[in-house]
Amino acid sequence: MARSANKFTRGFTLIELMVVVAIIAVLATIGIPIYKDYTVKSNVVATLAEAGSYKTAVGVCFAENGALDNCDAGTSPVPSAASRVTGVTDGKIALNPNIDCDNDSATTNTFAYEPNVVSGGVMTWDIVDDASNCAQYQ
After folding, report:
1. CA 100/CA 98 separation, integer angstroms
2. Who contacts 33 (Cβ-Cβ below 8 Å, separation ≥6)?
3. Chain center to CA of 19
4. Coiled-coil annotation: which residues (predicted)?
5. Rounded to whole angstroms, how far apart are CA atoms 138 and 121?
């Protein structure tokens, strides 16, 4: 029951393993920035979606009071501040999507929706403040 000396175990050569490692490195180099952009975009979209109910509430407040002066967070009909909506003052909705758009961890990228009332009581919204760093995600 002796084993034959001619049989040997086959495996991968060093070159084959190095090629596989190089392919994985190239895929990671391409995939990581795409994934970062995806997560930033999803945080911005979630923040803007959360702000939607506040925009509606500020519109109702303006319709009831005729002015934006007392349309603050926690006053009827504007709800209190939440996770991504950090506050509402005179109708201006402060937002913090908890992202770092410019890859500078020292910078907190916050922005705000600011209401503009035009003729006929029509309200439009502008994005203001520090949104320039996140412009590619708006």
Report:
1. 7
2. none
3. 36
4. none
5. 26
